[in-house]
Design brief:
about 230 residues, alpha/beta, seven-stranded mixed β-sheet, 9 helices, 7 strands
Amino acid sequence: MRAGRLGVGIIGAGRVGPVLGAALANAEHAVVGITAVSDAGRDRAEAMLPGAPVLDTAALVERSELVLLAVPDDQLPTLVQGLADAGLWQPGQLVVHTSPDHGVDVLAPAFRSGAIPLAIHPAMAFTGTSVDLARLRDAYCAVTAPAPVLPIAQALVVEMGAEPFVVAERDRPAYADAVRAAVSFSTAIVDQSAGTLSGIGVDRPGRVLGALVRSAVENALAAADGQATL
């Protein structure tokens, strides 16, 4: 592993962790392992990170220079505190979580052990497949970190192919509300429209709606950024 590259351990084999692990591997970081508790998680890890060992959490944290916590939001505080209670966090170790809800306060137990806390949330909906790697190149990631180490979080995002933008600790709940509203509203509208089209006998309503939804969303996004549409 050349100078400046990190040994990355991934906790969580859901849709997010293996994809971000693969993005970091593409940036020449070394994936030292991943945790996986289900067959689906193991299959996803093998597909996205072929050859990466499946490790238990303690072994993974001990071996990693960067620990990526890609777990459900409600599990994050307990996980971070439990690893601190076990004495596993290491001074200088980068600890990154991917929750939209939390900034770095949730990583305080790791910080007290000398670890460097970073919050990075990619603002995109994941499939857990290689499709996400291409989508990541067009995505933005919300980053929250103490000022002295903010450039580290931003550099990691750039290495993964995305664009970083800073969200203050106090603003993380509002940010989480915004991204969840966008996902849930767009999903609900498409489901409703597709259901209506199916009800009148239209085959493959998703394809029928595709161009309409994409163009409508692109126009709305341009308007949100203050750009005129043709």
